[in-house]
Amino acid sequence: MTVELLTEPLQANYIHSLQQVTPQILWIGCCDSNSKESTMLDILDDELLVLRNLGNMIIDGDLSCEITIKYAVVGLQVKHIVVCGHYGCHTVKAVSRDGLNGPWLSKLNALHSAYEEDINQLPLCERDRSFVELNILDQMRSLRKYPEVTDAITQGRLYIHGLVYDSQTEKISRLLGQQNH
Ligand SMILES: [Zn+2]
User: Fold this and answer.
1) Residue ranges of the alpha helices (H) in the chain?
2) pTM of the predicted model, to two decimals?
3) Which SUPFAM superfamilies match (predicted)?
4) Which residues belong to the annotated binding site?
5) Ligand 1 centre and the CA of 7: distance in Å?
C-alpha cells in the first residue's frame, strides 16, 4: 500500500466542450473551495451539473447525493463524473477533523485508519495533502458502488475522473492510475 500518489497537470481540453447547454459532466466538489470549475475545465457552465458538500464526499444514505448521481447518470446520461478535492481542505484533514460528526466523521476516520501507518511516515506538511488525494480515490470507489454507475462504465458511456486543486498555485491536477478507461 502506498500513499504517494502520482498526479499530472490537467491538460487543456482534458474533457472537450461539446458547446451544448445540457450537462455532460457531474462535478462532485467541496463546498469550502472557491475554485471555478468551468474555468478550470474550459467548458461552458451549462455543461456541468454541480454537487457540493463538505469534503466532496459520497456518503451512504445521503439522499441529495444519491438522487443527484442517479439523475445525472440515468436521466441526463452524463459522460463524465469528476470528483474534485482541494489541498488545504478544512474538512479533509489527516491530523484533526474537529467539528465533524456522524457519517462524515466516520468515513474519514475509517479512511485514515486504513492508511494511518503510511501517512505517518510522510513529513507533517505532506500528510494533509496526501489525505486529500486518498479521499478523492475513496469517493471514486464509492461512486462505483452505484449499479447505475458501474453499468454505464461497463457500457463505455461514462468515465470517472479524480482531480485535485491547489489554490496556492491555482493549478489543477489529475490523479493518475485510477481512471476507468
Ligand atoms: Zn474542502
Assistant:
1) 37-41, 63-70, 102-120, 124-143, 147-154
2) 0.91
3) beta-carbonic anhydrase, cab (SSF53056)
4) 30, 32, 86, 89
5) 19
Q: In what side-by-side order are the strands of the sheet with 159-166?
A: 7-9, 171-175, 159-166, 80-86, 25-30, 48-53
C-alpha cell at 108: 474519514
Rounded to whole angstroms, the Cα distance separating 160 from 81 reads 5
For residue 92, report the distance from its CA to the centre of ligand 1, in Å: 7
- Which structural domain, as residue segments, surrounds residue 87? 4-179
Q: Which residues pair with 175 in a beta bridge?
A: 7
Give me the number of domains the chain comprises. Answer: 1
The tens digit of pLDDT for each residue in 43-76 reads: 888 999 999 999 999 999 999 999 999 999 999 9
Residues 108-150 have pLDDT tens digits of: 999 999 999 999 999 988 999 999 999 999 999 999 999 999 9
Residue 136 CA, ligand 1 centroid: distance in Å: 11
What span, in angstroms and rounded, lies between the C-alpha atoms of 88 and 90? 6
Q: How far is the CA of 91 from the centre of ligand 1 (A)?
A: 5
Residues 139 and 89 sit within 8 Å (Cβ to Cβ) = no
Neighbours of 77 (CB within 10 A): 13
Q: What is the CATH number of the domain that holds 76?
A: 3.40.1050.10
Q: Cα of 84 to ligand 1 centre, how many Å? A: 10
